[in-house]
Amino acid sequence: MALTTSLALPVSSAESDERSTAAATPPLLSRGIYSLFPQYHPRGSMTCDNVPRVCRASGSPGPDCCRKQCVNVMTDNQNCGQCGKKCWFGQTCCGGSCVNVMYDPKNCGGCNKRCTKGCFCQFGMCSYA
């Protein structure tokens, strides 16, 4: 069994005013260190619409800029061949064209996987069945 007691102490009005103003205004550093540097924007300044060469840097998802994002229009299903051209359901972007890799003999099961001459592509496999 636990027994707790509390003791109420009188607080002067000056102390209570000081506590309420301290709680109402957050300290400067609570917003982050970058609030001290108004010219520094850690995320917004390096989009490819401002600086297109950022897409050609190593580690970039692709060399092309579409809607403020770096993409590769040769392989991106949302921007296949050009910005905004989406591949349909069941299609994949191969070399800038939307193809169905389940039935295309030039891209059977994946991009640039050709079936041998005389074979057909079915369910992503050459000469299935």
UniProtKB/TrEMBL annotation:
Q: What does the UniProt keyword field contain? A: Signal
InterPro entries per UniProt: Stig-like (IPR006969)
Question: What superkingdom heads the lineage?
Answer: Eukaryota
Q: Which Pfam families match?
A: Stig1
Family per UniProt? Belongs to the STIG1 family.
From the Swiss-Prot or TrEMBL record, give the protein name: Stigma-specific Stig1 family protein
Q: Which organism is it from?
A: Musa acuminata subsp. malaccensis
